[in-house]
Specification:
Neuraminidase; Aminopeptidase; binds zinc ion; Glucose Oxidase, domain 1; 745 residues; 8-stranded mixed sheet; single chain; elongated; alpha+beta
């Protein structure tokens, strides 16, 4: 979806008004007060779905005429800025365009479109009186400007479009140039007229002497823009999306920004015109589509089609899983994975960079656990990330089994000291159970325990231990800690219930080495209109040092990468920059996400319009959870800005109905984008059916065979469509700098 219309757009609208009407993007007319090199108050003249365009001030500067497409076709309306009254000039069966005050008369000239390329220039009196045909022999007229009370500069439709000069009355116009732009004007303080020469690139503003017929170049337009306005002081004004620029008439002057109207919700500015005294500027802005579902149907279909038949993404995922495998921070695997991604992305033509990050370097070393009494057998285990090792020869000690921290505290130091604490925790979802993995070691150490074993944070176990990071409390001695299987935790609980003592031996070589350098991998498609604004998406590229790190989180990285790749291949360059980040070191440090956040200036952070993260496995996706930091989910009064953003996301979500991934839930995010969200960036966490993720999360079983090609393709589709629309929709998901009102303490 492009918001800056091709120059021929309104010309084609004139040719096929009724057929084109259905596809005309909505525009609104605004008036801003102007004062030399600055602007003031912004006032909305129109506010409705539909085409309201081509404003011109009447000589009093208090009234505007503009063309407005309503049910009966396009008519000319008059808007009184003093009273706010807004009336149609004259109801007609045919359409009228390009209203322009006629010098020295209480009338406007306009293009009257009778269809079939019959478009002639007429005068309509502003008071009583009948319309008159001004140029009976010039047809079809597109645009016009008055040279004086008798003569007109005309944009005449045809192959090619021509610039013509004609006098009121019978007779053809004389052709002066080919391929003019649509904006024709009188240069203030001069007899010259101006137009844009579009016959060569870059386009140039030209000055025409209507008497001698000579044409000279003034200067280049702002890239790709053809609408301009002369202020009475002789400065020329143009717009680029939401930004207004001006420059002096001299050749050596430069465009300088006057204002960015983005904060006023005005984007995609096209036409602009000054009141005769220069104190008001009327502009036309693109109206955001009422319904993103309808507006992005075509692009979404392309992305969905490409994603659902994609083979390249899976081929890359297979490479990562098979030839590189797991990728813990500091490991050769992660280094190789980063090098490979950068090389491959570059080969694909994406803009790639590496962001240096110092990461922890924890190594597991050899490790084992065994039951030594009352029976003897080996016990599957996985040391927890960041754990210290045992002394050489290991630790042999009796166990004390607890179900939760309360039971541990109730036992007290007397019954814990010198023991191995076994947390035989219930599975009440990841969030509940994982606390024992992260805090259990230090809580046990506080009571004198020599080691801690934690039931794996999973609902289903096939004798598979699940690792994950622990966090030591600096106040307590660091004791070794490991995950054991659900089966063994349960067995030890049953033994304890029977009053039977169990003795274990735990041996771990784990150690923390000095930090090493790693990298975030950043790939992007620069935005076509607002490259400084960014939609960022991704997952974490590091994994635990077992399995292949497919569900956690390699497949997400590859899905985001492939979504970007497909959008690039489809040549769908969005307005904003679309960026993929493969964050490093999420699992045992979050240093990659922090480094990404810390490298942003406050301005750059504010220009992150949305952050998307996938870090819940590559099961069948169902949609997103949406959150903004500081939002009170339970507030009695819903936040209107959040609700509006949610409604926009639901419109985007409907584009995912073909893959049943339309759900937008309140609340969501992710560890990596959490860093950005705390800085105010709206966050979207991809959600899946979440049936099996925690069965293989952080285990040696997180391997490619657990992933499904179709689910992976759906993830590419969901990330691709959502990120693309967020990067391309004219308005931001939430206004820049907006934050919900903080919850009252
Ligand atoms: Zn993860």
């Amino acid at each position: 979806m492009r918001w800056n219309l091709p120059a021929a757009f309104v010309a084609s609208l004139l040719l096929v008004a009724s057929a084109a009407a259905a596809q005309i993007p909505s525009t609104d007319v605004f008036v801003v007060t102007a004062d030399g090199d600055s602007i003031g108050e912004v006032r909305r003249v129109t506010d409705r779905e539909g085409y309201d365009n081509q404003p011109q001030f009447l000589p009093d500067g208090e009234r505007l005429v503009y063309s407005s497409l309503r049910s009966g076709g396009t008519d000319i309306r008059i808007h009184d800025l003093r009273s706010g009254e807004d009336d149609v000039l004259r109801e007609t069966a045919e359409s009228e365009y390009s209203p322009t005050p006629i010098p020295g008369r209480e009338a406007i000239s306009l293009v009257r479109d009778f269809g079939n390329q019959d478009q002639q220039l007429w005068s309509f009196p502003l008071g009583a009186g009948e319309p008159e045909l001004l140029l009976p022999d010039v047809n079809p007229v597109g645009y016009h400007a008055w040279v004086d009370e008798e003569r007109l500069l005309l944009f005449v439709l045809g192959e090619p479009m021509t610039l013509q000069l004609a006098a009121v009355g019978p007779g053809r116009g004389s052709v002066l140039a080919d391929s003019p732009g649509r904006a024709l004007a009188r240069i203030p303080g001069s007899r010259e007229m101006s137009f844009v020469d579009k016959s060569t690139e870059p386009w140039r503003v030209m000055a025409l002497d209507p008497d001698g017929g000579t044409i000279r170049a003034l200067f280049e337009t702002i890239g790709g823009r053809e609408d301009y306005a002369w202020a009475p002081d002789g400065t020329l004004w143009m717009a680029d999306d939401s930004r207004l620029y001006r420059r002096g008439p001299k050749n050596d002057s430069v465009w300088s920004e006057v204002a960015d109207l983005d904060g006023e919700g005005i984007r995609g500015i096209t036409r602009l015109t000054f009141s005769p005294d220069g104190k008001r500027l009327a502009i036309v802005g693109q109206r955001p589509p009422a319904d993103l579902t309808a507006a992005y149907r075509d692009e979404a279909a392309k992305i969905l089609g490409a994603a659902l038949t994609d083979v390249e993404g899976w081929e890359k995922l297979e490479h990562l899983a098979t030839e590189i495998g797991h990728r813990l921070s500091g490991s050769v695997g992660l280094e190789r994975a980063i090098d490979w991604a950068v090389e491959r992305m570059e080969a694909e033509g994406l803009a790639v960079s590496k962001q240096s990050v110092m990461v922890p370097h924890w190594v597991r070393g050899a490790e084992s656990a065994a039951i030594v009494a009352p029976v003897e057998r080996d016990m599957p285990m996985l040391g927890l990330g960041n754990s210290v090792g045992t002394p050489p020869g290991g630790i042999t000690a009796p166990v004390v089994v607890v179900r939760d921290f309360d039971e541990l505290e109730a036992l007290g130091r007397e019954r814990v000291e010198g023991k191995i604490v076994v947390y035989a925790v219930d599975w009440r979802g990841y969030g509940y159970t994982v606390r024992y993995r992260s805090r259990g070691a230090s809580r046990a150490a506080a009571l004198g325990a020599v080691a801690a074993l934690v039931r794996s944070a999973t609902g289903l176990s096939l004798q598979t231990p699940h690792t994950g990071a622990l966090r030591y409390d600096d106040e307590q001695p660091k004791i070794p800690a490991a995950a054991i299987t659900v089966e063994d935790a349960d067995w030890m609980r049953r033994m304890a219930e029977r009053g039977l003592d169990v003795t274990l031996r735990l041996e771990m070589e784990a150690q923390m080495l000095p930090d090493v350098e790693s990298f975030n991998v950043i790939a992007e498609i620069p935005g076509a209109e607002r490259p400084e604004e960014v939609v960022v998406m991704g997952g974490h590229y590091d994994s635990w040092d077992v399995g292949e790190g497919v569900h956690d989180d390699g497949a997400a990285c590859l899905a985001a990468w492939q979504a970007l790749r497909l959008i690039q291949q489809l040549e769908l360059q969005p307005r904003r920059t679309l960026r993929v980040v493969l964050w490093t070191n999420e699992e045992n440090g979050l240093r990659g996400a922090r480094a990404y956040r810390d490298a942003l200036s406050e301005d750059e952070l504010a220009d992150h319009v949305a952050a998307l993260e996938m870090d819940g496995g590559v099961e069948r996706p169902v949609g997103f959870g949406f959150d903004v930091h500081g939002l009170d989910e339970n507030a009695a009064e819903p936040d209107p800005t959040y609700e509006a953003a949610l409604a926009r996301l639901e419109q985007i979500g409907r584009l995912l109905e073909p893959i049943e991934a339309s759900e937008i839930r309140r609340g969501g995010g992710g560890a990596d984008i959490g860093q950005l969200m705390r800085g105010g960036v709206p966050g979207l966490g991809l959600r899946t059916v979440l049936e099996h993720y925690f069965d293989w999360h952080h285990t040696a079983a997180d391997t490619l065979d657990k992933a499904d090609l179709q689910d992976f393709r759906r993830a590419i589709a969901l990330l691709g469509v959502t990120s693309y629309v967020l990067a391309d929709m004219p308005e931001r998901l939430v206004p820049r700098g907006w934050a919900p009102e903080q919850e009252q303490p």
